[in-house]
Amino acid sequence: MKAIFVQFKCRPGMAYKVADSLIQEVPEISEVYSTSGHYDLIAKFYLADEQDIGHFVTERLQVTEGVADTFTLVAFKAFG
Q1: Is the distance from CB of 70 to CB of 57 less than 8 angstroms?
Q2: How many CB atoms lie within 10 A of CB 64?
Q3: CATH number of the domain enclosing 8
């Protein structure tokens, strides 16, 4: 399994709906948090080693209603 973190910029008033949609519709999600700053949410996903990150983000996450933009971080190693 590989972990990725995706930050979501949501359309105004949509952050809670986007978070709920991700939890309900994306089984790869581990957790999602509301954040301050340039993005409204950050979520952690666990993907199978053979799962393509680009297809996952563009075809499963960016098409979520209310999502205006995403920023993806790939995690290399967990400490602790």
Answers
A1: yes
A2: 18
A3: 3.30.70.920
- Residue of 71, 54, 64 whose CA lies nearest to 22: 64
Tens digit of each residue's pLDDT (9 = 90 or more) over 14-35: 999 999 999 999 999 999 999 9
Closest to 11 (Cα-Cα) out of 42, 44, 39: 39
What is the band of 80 on the pLDDT scale with cuts at 50, 70, 90?
A: confident
Percent of the chain surpassing pLDDT 70: 100
Which domain does 38 fall in, by range?
A: 2-74
Number of independent structural domains in the chain = 1
39: left (phi over 0), alpha (psi -120 to 50) or beta: beta
